[in-house]
Every structure is written in structure tokens, then in C-alpha cells.
Amino acid sequence: MDRNKQHRQVALMRQSLFDQGLLDEQFVQLEELQDDANPNFVEEVVTLFYRDSARLILNIDQALDKSPLDFAKLDSYMHQFKGSASSIGAKKVKSECTLFREYCKAGNGEGCKRTFQQLKKEYALLRKKLESYFQLARQVGPVETACRRI
Amino acid sequence: MNILKILDESLGWVRYKPTNNIPKTISIHLPHSLFSSSSYNLTYFLLAFNFFWRNSAMGMATESQFHVLAVDDSLIDRKLIEKLLKTSSFQVTVVDSASKALEFLGLQESEQRINHHQEMKVDLIITDYSMPGMTGYDLLKKIKKSTSFKDIPVVIMSSENIPSRINRCLEEGAEDFLLKPVQLSDVDRLRPHLLGWRTLVKI
């Protein structure tokens, strides 16, 4: 009984991430790649993303401190970052990336800085939520993820 | 002739004449309807044919797995493309730059030219477009200019949907262009290119 309740909790947690616009279809694609050979594939990819993108976040922070701003460089960093975010299905983070790039193209430094602060917030929030989700999912054990299409 | 018998019995699309001697070539007569209806039928046929071929006695003469060389500077995308390809039963080698790809193929001028040829035969190259240094486009051009490797199908991946970029790549000889993030359904599209059917049939 308790088991089923836990499974339901995991499913609800998962669905809320989609409902809140934090994740998109690409995350489902990652789930579909998870199998017996790679039972923790999704968590591995997400962990890799946070580890790999930390460097880019630092680069962007440093670049935003410079004066005058090198928009081409900023855009290039963000292009890389957006690509990775997109690959894990981080929907909200991805849209902040798009906004940032638009400000870059417009040469709007303030817009870039503002957007980047928001991006970092979304990035951290997603990390926390995914960590909780993976932790609970691991406790409950593997289950046929009824992939409810968003 | 088992494979043709299986195809005929299961799909009902193939006519064959059993012979006693093993022929060098096989003619397959496909119904016209396969071409005049949507390309979905033809793709299905090609995939089914590929599956049966590889699982038949005749298929044993060919390689059991296609070897794909994937090129991407992004760590995440490398992990992703490797899993996608392995899940689709491809043998995979992943490198993080175009120059490493050329090295792997043996195209790079280096002091020690290792003869990879037999075990490292590459059946398809899939590369990201935007990479620092040599881009995927540059890599494509180099491969198509090389006498030994110009026939290897090359597929380009990009996160940006830019028609002029896509056209440029196709004109330079790329077989296909995939938008990132790449999905399993995209990887399924690769098989007909690997079969070389594109040279026989223009879908």
C-alpha cells in the first residue's frame, strides 16, 4: 500500500515539473533512453549538465563584469549554454537563454544582466527540484514510467 | 533466398524466382504503389528489408552492426548522441572535435599514421555544425574532398534552424540535417542512408 502511495508521489512530482513549465518533451526523450543497461541515465545526464555548465555560468558572470561588454562573446557562451539546457529539456532555463541572446543582439547590457540573474535563479530552482525528484525516485525503486504526454 | 521468401510471405511485396546457383545480384521488383503513395510506406519497407536482411543467412556476409562516428564539442550532446546511437544498435565512436574525427579516419597528417582501416571502418559520420576551430561544415567539405572517405554518408546536427545553412550543407553533400536536440526518431532516419538506398531511390 505504502509502495503504491510512494509511486504516486513520484509520478505527481514528475508531472508537476512539466505542469510548472520547468521541463519539456526533451526530458521525456531522456527517460525513454533509460534502460536496464543505464538505469540512472536521466540523473547522470542532469548531473553532467550542472557540472559542465557551472564553468559557463562563471565565464558569463565574469564577462558581464567587464566594461565595455563583449556581446559577441556573451552570445557565444549563451549559445553553448542554451544548447546544453535544451538537451536536458530545461524549458524555463532555455527561454531565459533565448531572452538573454536577444538582449545581446540588441546590445542591451542591462537587459543581459537582469536576465542572467533570473536565469541563475531558474537554474538553481530546477536543480533543487530535480535532486528531490531523483532522490525520491531512487528510494521508491524502478517503475514503469507511465509517460503522460504533456 | 530465405530473406526474399520471408519478405514475400510477410509483406507480400516482393516477387522472386528461386534459383539453384547463388547469384551475384538480386533484382527486387517493388510495386509501383510503394512509390506513388506517401514516403512512409517506402521508408517502412526499407527499414523492414534492412531488418530482415541483417537477420538472414545472406545478411551474415555483411557487417552485423553499422559503425557511426559522432562529432560534437558539447559534453552533454556527446553523451546523448552516444546513447541514442547505441540504443538504436549502432556501434559508436564519439570524438569532441572535427580534427579528432579526421585523425580517427586517418585523414590527418600525423607522424604516426596508424592503419585503422579494417576494424575502424566508419559507415556514417554525424557531426555538430557549430564547433570551435574546424566546424562541422569544414569537416563535411574535407570528407567529401577525400578519395577514401567521400562515400561515407555525413549527417549534420545543429541547434539552429537556418535554411541557408541547411541548404549549404546539403549542397556540399550532406545526406541529412538534424535539428537539436536529436531524438530517437531522428536516429531511426539514419538507417536508409546507411543502406545506400538513396543512390537507387530518390524519396
| Helix-strand makeup class of chain B | alpha/beta
Most extensive chain contact?
Answer: A-B, 22 and 15 residues
Average pLDDT for all residues of chain B: 77
Please, how many helices of chain A?
6
N-C termini distance of chain A: 28 Å
Tell me the total number of β-strands of chain B: 5
> How far is the first residue's CA from the last residue's CA of chain B?
27 Å
Name the helicity range of chain B.
25-40%
Task: Work out the radius of gyration of chain A.
Answer: 17 Å
Computed structural class of chain A? mainly alpha
Q: What shape does the CA trace of chain A take?
A: elongated
Radius of gyration of chain B: 19 Å
Please give the share of residues in helix of chain A. Answer: over 70%
Overall average pLDDT of chain A: 93
Number of DSSP E strands of chain A: 0
Strand order of the largest sheet of chain B: 2-1-3-4-5
Series of secondary-structure elements of chain A, N-terminal to C-terminal: HHHHHH
| Basic shape of chain B | globular
Listing every helix as H and every strand as E from the N terminus to the C terminus, the arrangement of chain B reads: HHHEHEHEHEHEHH
Q: Point out poorly predicted stretches of chain A.
A: none
